[in-house]
Design a protein that fits this description.
Layout lengths: L2 H25 L2 H47 L2
Length: 78
């Protein structure tokens, strides 16, 4: 799954969890409320994993660009 896919799936899971949590509270079903809270937190975690992956990929691309730039400068100065 792509990092963007993780973020989207995480958002969906968080929304589902919030809904379950709300309904569980409204009808007094503690088991449903607890399951919703778990789903909500799992969704947030999945979103964070997607964001971290995107940051890592961006940093790696930036480092690659800097290396290419330095390589070009070295060739130019030869």
């Amino acid at each position: 799954m792509t990092d963007q896919g993780k973020k989207i799936k995480g958002m969906a899971q968080e929304i589902k969890g919030r809904t379950e949590e709300f309904v569980g509270r409204a009808i007094g079903d503690e088991k449903m409320r607890a399951k919703g809270a778990g789903d909500r937190m799992a969704g947030k975690t999945l979103q964070a994993a997607g964001e971290a992956g995107q940051k890592v990929r961006g940093t790696a691309e930036e480092a690659k660009g800097k290396a290419e730039e330095m390589k070009g400068r070295a060739r130019k100065n030869m």
